[in-house]
Amino acid sequence: MKILLDVSAVSLPLSGIGRYTLELAGHLPHCPGVEEVVYLAGDRVQADFDPAAIPPPPPASRFRQWLKPLLPYKLLLGPYRRRRARALAASLHDYRDYLFHSPNFSLPPVEGRAVVTLHDLSVFHFPQFHPRDRVNYLRDQIAHSIARADHLVTDSAFVRGELLQLFGLPADRVTAVPLGVDAAFRPRPVGDLQAVMARYGLRAGAYLLSVGTIEPRKNLAALLRAHQGLDRAQRRQYPLVIAGAYGWNSGPLLAQLEQLRGAGELIYLDYVPEPDLPALYAGAAAFCYLSFYEGFGLPVLEAMASGVPVICASGSALDELCAGSAEQAEPHDDAAILASLKKVLDDPAWRSEATERGLARAATFTWQNSARQLATLFAELAA
């Protein structure tokens, strides 16, 4: 079986979809039945994929951000996308005998069998958490992929059920393949954490952690309110550490972060490089993730694998992922979130039990298993 994997989503800083794609690129070539894997990067197909060669992101430009709203993007995007589609079609023509996998919602003009991963349907259920252009674009791409792909993959049974219900698809067209967690996310002795702790001015076991893009969907405002509901001594003893790059509509929240940072009760780290994340997780007293909606919730899995008790939102795919291994609260219920924070800080017996349950749950998720399940699916489609 020959596979053409689209790796265009792999760029720095690495997103969740970028991580998913990177892990598949590393594991699919070693799966039983896989004869060859080639990679689509942009509009070119290449025989090899070297993660070390991923270019760093361009420096931030305030001028570019100022200019962007003034440019007629809708007029410019049409010709650009048509040119890219022609270049893609030319590149892909020689690979029509390969099974194509798009890990990022959209399907380019392939001629052979194709599989697309749809990670979530938030642009349909929660359009208020996205810019309008993104909503329109992803809705179009998802509809196009549903119409043209031979098979669809989701990260969770939850999103699979949403997809079947929303679009009336037959059950045999969609397969749920859960994500995995890298072996770097594991419990670590305090001595192994010291370099990263010193780099960010932290003490192991003395902070609450949240990791994710700063955007409304992540519900950080509720977490900030809950943390402020703790008594001052606890807020100082367990400051809230937030790691994540700026996202859409993050301005009001960033202003609040700055205010709390000045009070010594919050540490905002911005984007944290991949090599530092495992130690950052392992050093936390607890991990907090209160998103309104998730198609899987990879940071929760990484925290559980790191031996850290988890407080997360109930609902969406997080219920499926946690399966009783975390303290969950309704994301709109500030009182319940505060009670969960107090529980994790005041109940050492619960913390110990939650840590063990989380480790056991996380052990069932590996990227090797994810790749093997996909390879089995691909073989069935290619037969």
Task: Give an account of the 3D structure.
45% of the residues lie in helices and 14% in strands. It is an alpha/beta fold and 383 residues long. It has 2 domains: 2-59 and 81-180 and 367-382, Glycogen Phosphorylase B (Rossmann fold), CATH 3.40.50.2000; 190-362, 3-Layer(aba) Sandwich (Rossmann fold), CATH 3.40.50. The strands form 2 sheets. It has a 7-stranded mixed β-sheet with strand order 3-2-1-4-5-6-7, with helices on both faces. Helix 8 crosses helix 14 (334-346) and helix 12 crosses helix 15 (348-362). The longest helix has 20 residues, at 73-92. The model has no long low-confidence stretch (mean pLDDT 92).
List the helices and strands and how they pair.
Layout (H helix, E strand, L loop, with lengths): L1 E5 L9 H12 L8 E6 L2 E3 L15 H6 L5 H20 L6 E4 L11 E4 L4 H4 L6 H17 L2 E4 L2 H11 L6 E3 L13 H11 L7 E4 L8 H10 L2 H6 L2 E4 L7 H12 L3 E5 L6 H6 L3 E4 L8 H8 L4 E4 L4 H5 L4 E3 L4 H13 L1 H15 L4 H16 L1
Parallel strand pairs: 1-2, 1-4, 4-5, 5-6, 6-7, 8-9, 8-11, 9-10, 11-12, 12-13
Antiparallel strand pairs: 2-3
List keywords for this structure.
Rossmann fold; globular; 383 residues; seven-stranded mixed beta sheet; alpha/beta; 16 helices
